[in-house]
């Protein structure tokens, strides 16, 4: 494991502080209707422009490629962040190195490439370890249509909020007798209420109109019944937000036929993983959907959908991984760090490149390399 730490040059710091007061790119400047104009400026608190340390886990497969893409773009836009970078962290390790966990605890924020979890065997997922260690109880994946990227469905804008710490991912498995394995699903009122509260709070703060609870309470009457009961209690405190419920199998069918009907979805752990990857595939693919994991004190941002987040050997060798998902996740990170102007600039530039259609990786129907997409984004930023 190697660690490198790069600080934003001191000469840039005055520029970084002053640039927070500048306006984001206008629609006219980009020639497209993706810019966000503000009638009231963002007013930071004194000291908010100081560069922030972010833990960077490069991960497996395409992870180093796409995390390097983010670093290049952050440097090009002079974003007020610097990275504490960790190489050599792989999904087949038995545990997350203590130095990595300590770095995240200290910095509060992490950007992560994909970590491959071995199938079967005795190695537990490092992703799950991090969520538990840091109590990152809410996973959020935003699945939406990108202008200029054709998909089967239009007007898709779904946010999947998934409970991240219990359910089938509790890891309580044992062999009762040879040939018989018992795996326990744990649902608690505490965790169900806090994920429901997070979903409704997210909807309220982001002007969303509806929250849908996904469940299988017709079969798992106690476990998913408790989850639904908790969601209903929280829903009663938000009368301005519509609340409904849907069984998970019907949810999957509705997603692939009429995804535009969904707004915010709140789910137990396993269902959320399935629903988020399905919604991502519908809206444009896992390579373009941002996401993150958040708790009371820490946050980790990564590609939103887990499918394909480490890529294939061919993608790595040819250096053609799609960096869009992690670039948009880093825009989410910048908003989390209260750097909204930088987040707007980055998101606008990425959407411009996608809409223009000249530089796209193979998963989006193009032939571009990762670096070519990065260079195109930087050109728009400049």
From TrEMBL:
Record flagged with keyword Transcription: no
Annotated GO CC locations: mitochondrion
Domain of life: Eukaryota
Subcellular location: Mitochondrion
Keywords: Magnesium, Manganese, Metal-binding, Mitochondrion, NAD, Oxidoreductase, Transit peptide, Tricarboxylic acid cycle
Example of a GO biological process term: tricarboxylic acid cycle
InterPro entries: Isocitrate_DH_NAD (IPR004434), IsoPropMal-DH-like_dom (IPR024084)
Sequence ranges assigned to domain Isopropylmalate dehydrogenase-like in this UniProt record: 53-377
One Pfam family here: Iso_dh
Primary location recorded for the protein, binned into one broad class: mitochondrion
GO molecular function, one term: metal ion binding
NCBIfam families to which the protein is assigned, alphabetical: mito_nad_idh
Role, per record: Performs an essential role in the oxidative function of the citric acid cycle.
Similarity annotation: Belongs to the isocitrate and isopropylmalate dehydrogenases family.
Protein name: Isocitrate and isopropylmalate dehydrogenases family
């Amino acid at each position: 494991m190697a660690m490198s730490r790069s600080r934003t040059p001191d000469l840039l710091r005055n520029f970084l502080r002053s640039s927070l007061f500048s306006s984001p790119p206008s629609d006219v400047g980009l020639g497209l209707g993706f810019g966000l104009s503000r009638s009231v400026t963002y007013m930071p608190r004194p000291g908010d422009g100081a560069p922030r340390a972010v833990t960077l886990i490069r991960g497996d497969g395409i992870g180093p490629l796409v995390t390097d893409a983010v670093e290049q773009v952050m440097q090009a836009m002079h974003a007020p962040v610097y990275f504490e970078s960790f190489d050599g962290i792989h999904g087949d390790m038995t545990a997350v190195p203590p130095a990595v966990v300590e770095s995240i605890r200290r910095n509060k924020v992490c950007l992560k490439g994909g970590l491959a979890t071995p199938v079967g065997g005795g190695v537990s997922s490092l992703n799950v370890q991090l969520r538990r260690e840091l109590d990152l109880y809410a996973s959020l994946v935003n699945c939406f249509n990108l202008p200029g990227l054709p998909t089967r469905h239009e007007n898709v804008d779904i946010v999947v909020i998934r409970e991240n710490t219990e359910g089938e991912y509790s890891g309580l498995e044992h062999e009762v007798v040879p040939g018989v394995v018992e795996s326990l699903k744990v649902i608690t009122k505490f965790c169900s209420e806090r994920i429901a509260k997070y979903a409704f709070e997210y909807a309220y703060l982001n002007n969303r109109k509806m929250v849908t609870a996904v469940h299988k309470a017709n079969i798992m009457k106690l476990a998913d019944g408790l989850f639904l009961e908790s969601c209903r209690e929280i829903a009663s405190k938000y009368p301005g937000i519509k609340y409904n419920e849907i069984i998970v199998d019907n949810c999957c069918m509705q997603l692939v036929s009429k995804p535009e009907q969904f707004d915010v979805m709140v789910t137990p752990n396993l269902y959320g993983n399935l629903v988020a990857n399905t919604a991502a595939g519908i809206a444009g693919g896992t390579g373009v959907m941002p996401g993150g994991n958040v708790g009371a004190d820490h946050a980790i941002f990564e590609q939103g959908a887990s499918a394909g987040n480490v890529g294939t050997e061919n993608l790595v060798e040819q250096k053609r991984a799609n960096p869009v998902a992690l670039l948009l996740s880093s825009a989410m990170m910048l908003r989390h760090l209260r750097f909204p102007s930088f987040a707007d600039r980055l998101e606008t530039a990425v959407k411009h490149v996608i809409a223009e259609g000249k530089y796209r990786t193979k998963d989006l129907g193009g032939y571009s390399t990762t670096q070519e997409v990065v260079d195109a984004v930087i050109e728009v930023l400049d």
